[in-house]
Design a protein that fits this description.
The chain is α/β, with parallel strands linked by helices and 307 residues long. It has helices at 10-23, 39-48, 70-74, 89-92, 108-120, 146-151, 157-163, 180-192, 202-210, 216-230, 265-279, 284-291, 295-304; strands at 29-32, 57-61, 76-78, 84-87, 97-101, 122-124, 131-133, 137-142, 166-169, 199-200, 235-236.
């Protein structure tokens, strides 16, 4: 793949396997996932593996659109003579891909026009009497729960369904624990430059594997860059980490003593999974963290035990 999307965990492998097929279609794609998971990287991969790769890839960050002139910024402006005096970003993307990042922030006042653009490829320029037809593919991304925003009346349902012809979910880093050490080593080498590479003791690795990484891949990349600058060539110990990366006292590892009478391992596994799901109010990602396994492993074991 042309874009650098790294990982071999089941969650990311499935995503990478489907990208080439989706890239070759013209369907709108909605990429959902937490902040820092790499949604823009996925959008770029869709563009550069598509038939549009030689045409523009235009990113529109809906969270920072100029509210007072959002329509002109997106579509453009014309005069009474029919001349286009300003080409908006959608017109500038002719033949290519438009990436609506943070699409949940798109003002309600403009969502109807974006919907029409999605449905017919047409847009009305301010001060211009002719409809402009533009050939672009739309990819959108959101870290918010768009369905919740639709239910709350803060996002148009028709636009939501038109955007998510193909829905993609980018897994959080805590749901692809198997990739963490590989990513730490990869970015450690990348940021080391001419210096010796930072290494991690086994205890430090355990801390980093159980850390929740709320900032996801972006946080891990920043962490690797910081460690490369401050600790070149050093083997990091747990005390070198920020306090929030240390396991909570209640999460310290305990030695389980097998009773002389033995146990039924399958039943113990079922009981622990059920307890974790109860403690996390059914949130499977949180339950997996409580059990020290990835979300995919938890789902596999739930299916195995028919939970």
């Amino acid at each position: 793949m042309a874009m650098e999307i790294l990982g071999s965990s089941p969650a990311i492998t499935h995503l990478l396997r489907t990208l080439p097929m989706i890239a070759l279609s013209e369907a709108s794609v909605l990429i959902e996932g937490e902040t820092g998971t790499g949604k823009e990287l996925i959008a770029k991969a869709l563009h550069f593996e598509s038939r549009r790769k030689s045409k523009p890839f235009v990113t529109i960050n809906c969270a920072v659109l100029p509210v007072e002139r959002v329509e002109v910024d997106l579509f453009g402006k014309g005069d009474e003579s029919g001349e286009i005096t300003h080409r908006g970003r959608l017109l500038a993307a002719e033949g290519g891909t438009v990436f609506f990042d943070n699409v949940e922030s798109l003002p309600l006042s403009i969502q109807a026009k974006v919907l029409r653009f999605l449905e017919a490829g047409e847009c009305q320029l301010q001060g211009h009497h002719k409809l402009q037809v533009v050939d672009v593919r739309i990819v959108a991304a959101s870290s918010a729960d768009l369905q919740h925003l639709v239910d709350a009346g803060r996002f148009r349902s028709d636009l939501y369904y038109r955007l998510q012809v193909v829905p993609l979910r980018v897994p959080a880093l805590r749901d692809r624990v198997d990739d963490i050490l590989m990513l730490l080593r990869h970015f450690g080498r990348k940021f080391a430059g001419n210096n010796a590479v930072v290494r991690y003791s086994k205890e430090t690795e355990r801390c980093l594997l159980t850390y929740a990484w709320p900032g996801n891949i972006r946080e891990l990349i920043n962490f690797c860059q910081r460690m490369a600058l401050l600790n070149p060539g050093k083997t990091l110990q747990p005390e070198d980490l920020a306090s929030e990366m240390m396991p909570e006292s209640g999460a310290q590892s305990h030695v389980f003593t097998l009773p002389r009478t033995g146990i039924k391992l399958a039943q113990v596994e079922v009981d622990l999974i059920e307890q974790a799901l109860n403690l996390s109010a059914g949130n499977r990602s949180k339950a997996a963290r409580l059990l020290g396994i990835s979300r995919d492993t938890l789902l596999y074991r739930m299916q195995k035990h028919e939970l």
